[in-house]
DNA sequence: GGCCAGGCTAGCA
DNA sequence: TGCTAGCATGGC
């Protein structure tokens, strides 16, 4: 199938997005090169490998599959737009950043970086729960084991691409099944419970996204394993809510300590007070601050 | 060896 | 309503 182009709105920088996608060598959900990223999409009945590259007209999307229908093409475009937050007008955030001593230099460094997320609700919730209270590197290790054990893969041109485990598969597991992967029993329980809710239909992104942000947040908080941090994280990364602000986040605290030149980490109250000026863009501010923590990869 | 990691729940006052 | 132990393990 011939490639197609997704136009983008300024500010947008494909290289900055690519650098973010390369942040962990342990990432299994996509494969990057110097100029492209490939990701396997599951379209309900088949897999399609998708490659994204920069083109002067926008993002070039190449599909490694014959006879992709127009409906499937539209689904893939939608997924890519959600994944890279392409429908966002970032200009208000740029204006806000220019008036903020912490954000100004960070925004200039990574200008055009989008809040890259997890369009799939099960993946977003699972990744957030995995990441609770452990180092990111260990979180990636756990995710890799989980995906390689329960996800599906296709090997194309000698490279293996994975899709995230489907809730239908995880819903059939007992939490004990995840213990050998070094999940804590609690996390395993939360993840299996959430998979069951999704399969049973009591938890669905399609239903939640109809609701106001505050109501989505309340629904998420009712799930075992989901506290304030996780609810805001999932609002940011799955519902693309730019104002969702995980005030308790350890990485955010570390970044603020560094950029404000503090000798200790800020308290949650101090974070709230400082973040008040990011009204509506707390999630983007947090994302850029996280980005500032891991250098230039 | 101690403490912190992109926290949350259950149990107790 | 507010506080804390316990969870699991890697990395500094």
Give a short overview:
The chain has 297 residues and is of the alpha+beta class. It has helices at residues 14-21, 70-83, 91-98, 103-110, 121-131, 136-150, 167-170, 185-200, 205-208, 213-221, 228-237, 250-260, 268-275, 282-293, and strands spanning 4-6, 31-32, 36-42, 47-55, 58-63, 152-156, 159-163.
Overview of the structural elements:
The strands form two sheets. A five-stranded antiparallel β-sheet has the order 1-5-4-3-2, with helices on one face. The protein has three domains: 4-87, TATA-Binding Protein (2-Layer Sandwich); 90-109 and 242-297, Endonuclease Iii, domain 2, CATH 1.10.1670; 121-237, Hypothetical protein, domain 2 (Endonuclease III, domain 1, Orthogonal Bundle). It has helices spanning 14-21, 70-83, 91-98, 103-110, 121-131, 136-150, 167-170, 185-200, 205-208, 213-221, 228-237, 250-260, 268-275, 282-293; strands at 4-6, 31-32, 36-42, 47-55, 58-63, 152-156, 159-163. α3 (91-98) crosses α4 (103-110), α4 (103-110) crosses α14 and α12 packs across α14 (282-293). The radius of gyration is 19 Å and the shape is globular. It is α+β, with helices and mostly antiparallel strands and 297 residues long. The structure holds a DNA duplex (13 and 12 nucleotides).
Q: Which range does the strand content fall in?
A: 5-15%
CATH superfamily of the largest domain: Hypothetical protein, domain 2
CATH architecture annotation of the largest domain: Orthogonal Bundle
Helix content: 40-55%
Question: What overall form do the CA principal axes indicate?
Answer: globular
The number of E-state strands comes to 7
Query: How many domains comprise the coordinates?
Result: 3
Strand order of the largest sheet: 1-5-4-3-2
Rounded average pLDDT: 95
CATH C-level category of the largest domain: Mainly Alpha
CATH topology of the largest domain: Endonuclease III, domain 1
Described by strand count, sense and barrel closure, the largest sheet is: 5 strands, antiparallel
**pLDDT < 50 stretches:** none
- Would you tell me the structural class of the helices and strands? alpha+beta
């Amino acid at each position: 199938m011939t490639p197609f182009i997704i136009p983008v709105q300024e500010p947008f920088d494909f290289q900055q997005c690519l650098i973010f996608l390369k942040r962990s060598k342990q990432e299994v959900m996509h494969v990057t090169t110097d100029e492209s990223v490939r990701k396997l999409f599951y379209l309900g009945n088949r897999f399609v490998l998708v490659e994204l590259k920069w083109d002067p007209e926008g993002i070039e999307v190449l599909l490694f599959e014959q006879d992709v229908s127009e409906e499937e093409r539209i689904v893939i475009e939608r997924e890519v737009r959600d994944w890279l937050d392409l429908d966002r007008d970032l200009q208000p955030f740029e204006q806000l950043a220019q008036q903020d001593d912490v954000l100004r230099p960070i925004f200039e460094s990574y200008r055009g970086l989008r809040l890259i997320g997890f369009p799939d609700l099960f993946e977003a919730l699972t990744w957030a729960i995995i990441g609770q209270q452990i180092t990111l590197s260990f979180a990636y290790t756990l995710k890799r084991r989980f995906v390689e054990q329960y996800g599906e893969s296709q090997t194309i041109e000698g490279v293996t691409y994975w899709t995230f485990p489907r809730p239908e598969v995880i819903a059939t597991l007992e939490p004990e099944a995840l213990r050998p992967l070094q999940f804590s029993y609690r996390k395993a329980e939360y993840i299996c419970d959430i998979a069951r809710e999704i399969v049973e239909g009591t938890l669905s992104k399609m239903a939640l996204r109809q609701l106001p942000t505050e109501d989505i947040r309340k629904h998420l908080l009712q799930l075992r394993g989901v506290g304030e941090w996780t609810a805001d994280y999932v609002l940011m990364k799955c519902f693309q809510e730019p104002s969702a602000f995980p005030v308790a986040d350890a990485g955010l605290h570390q970044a603020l300590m560094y950029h404000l030149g503090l000798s200790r980490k800020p308290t949650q109250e101090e974070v709230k007070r400082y973040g008040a000026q990011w009204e509506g863009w707390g999630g983007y501010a947090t994302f850029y601050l996280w980005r500032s923590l891991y250098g230039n990869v």
